[in-house]
């Protein structure tokens, strides 16, 4: 039988080995690099891409280069549905999405894109902030972490004939983003039978005359070069397009807690800046297009505006229990009503 001294030496030796092993693991974890493969439709050189480069730079600095992004811009990873598929199989980890892509993951988030929902940017900011935690939890249940909102902005109609009323839309060959139920319902309510195409096919279809009208934010029209093939901008926006940056939980949960914290903290700080930059880019884009000779079609008169608002109400009601619940829609409407009431009191 081994002596007590021998057993003590064995136990001591065991604990030394265990300590060294744990120390080695901790050291390896602390020094390991994590690369987030991020994809976006935004072309290189745009406000959105410039922001992501700066975002990546700050994440690298805060993490001592342990966490970084590898960015795939300009749709080289495919349309948003392609990016989602690649995230699911692990080829990508994160993406910048419009409401269309977000809706493929979490349909109810499309409530933020409803036509004629918001009257101004202050209302947009209020609802985005008020419902951030709700959608953070909802995306989390779908396997994604919502890093922040990345608003696309006001959705205008760009066309080759002036459009100020619903009647003006007769005969328009309008594009619809392939796989977007919100746009399909809206254009149906406006009496339009659209041409369903992917984002990548829009410019060529404009060039060939397959379509002669598109919708989107002013900055998107500039970035995608759509403005080179249209003559008019309808200045009354039909909606405000949402956007976000998401990362898969499968990747996010593998990050050490300190890196998770860095990513979330930098996101909380930086994404409000992106919204401000995007809004400036949208305003600057309208000025640039007007300077290039594109005609700005003003807001419809009240009698012509009412049919648009009725169409928006139809869309909201028709999409209940298809994209979102009646309860969520009522919560958003109630929050907007409360905000408008408070704003009215302040203005008085």
How do the strands and helices of this protein lay out in sequence?
Layout: H1 4-31, E1 34-39, H2 47-62, E2 67-72, H3 80-88, E3 94-98, H4 99-105, H5 121-130, H6 132-141, E4 144-149, E5 153-159, E6 175-177, H7 181-189, E7 195-197, H8 202-208, E8 213-216, H9 218-223, E9 232-241, E10 243-248, H10 249-252, H11 257-291, E11 295-297, H12 302-318, H13 326-347
Parallel strand pairs: 1-2, 1-3, 6-7, 9-11
Antiparallel strand pairs: 3-10, 4-10, 5-8, 5-9
Helix pairs in contact: 2-11, 5-13, 7-12
Overview of the molecule:
The chain is 52% helix and 17% strand. The chain has 348 residues and is α/β, with parallel strands linked by helices. It has a single domain, classed as D-Maltodextrin-Binding Protein, domain 2 (3-Layer(aba) Sandwich). The strands form 3 sheets. It has a 5-stranded mixed β-sheet with strand order 2-1-3-10-4, sandwiched between helices. A 4-stranded mixed β-sheet has the order 8-5-9-11. α7 packs across α12. The chain is globular and about 65 Å long. The N and C termini lie far apart (93 Å). The model is unreliable at 13-28 (pLDDT under 50).
């Amino acid at each position: 039988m081994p002596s007590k001294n021998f057993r003590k030496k064995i136990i001591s030796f065991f604990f030394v080995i265990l300590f060294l092993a744990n120390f080695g693991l901790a050291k390896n974890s602390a020094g390991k690099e994590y690369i987030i493969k991020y994809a976006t439709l935004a072309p290189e050189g745009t406000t959105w891409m410039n922001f992501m480069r700066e975002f990546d730079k700050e994440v690298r600095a805060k993490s001592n280069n342990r966490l970084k992004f590898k960015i795939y811009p300009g749709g080289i990873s495919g349309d948003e549905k392609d990016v989602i598929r690649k995230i699911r199989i692990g080829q990508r980890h994160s993406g910048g999405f419009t409401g269309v892509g977000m809706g493929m993951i979490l349909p109810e988030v499309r409530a933020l894109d409803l036509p004629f929902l918001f009257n101004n940017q202050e209302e947009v900011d209020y609802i985005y902030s008020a419902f951030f935690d709700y959608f953070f939890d909802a995306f989390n249940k779908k396997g994604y972490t919502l890093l922040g909102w990345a608003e696309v902005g006001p959705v205008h109609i760009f066309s080759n004939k002036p459009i100020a009323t619903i009647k003006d839309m007769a005969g328009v060959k309008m594009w619809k983003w392939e796989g977007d139920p919100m746009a399909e319902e809206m254009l149906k309510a406006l009496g339009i039978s659209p041409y369903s195409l992917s984002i990548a096919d829009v410019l060529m279809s404009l060039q060939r005359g397959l379509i002669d009208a598109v919708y989107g934010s002013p900055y998107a029209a500039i970035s995608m070069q759509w403005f080179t093939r249209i003559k008019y901008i309808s200045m009354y926006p039909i909606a405000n397009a949402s956007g976000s940056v998401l990362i898969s939980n499968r990747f996010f949960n593998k990050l050490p807690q300190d890196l998770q914290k860095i990513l979330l903290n930098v996101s909380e700080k930086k994404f409000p800046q992106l919204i401000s930059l995007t809004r400036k880019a949208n305003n600057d884009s309208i000025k640039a297009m007007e300077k290039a000779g594109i005609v700005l079609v003003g807001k419809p008169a009240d009698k012509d505006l009412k049919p648009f608002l009725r169409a928006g109400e139809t869309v909201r009601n028709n999409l209940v229990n298809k994209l979102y619940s009646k309860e969520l829609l009522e919560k958003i409407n109630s929050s907007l009503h409360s905000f408008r009431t408070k704003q009215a009191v302040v203005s008085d």
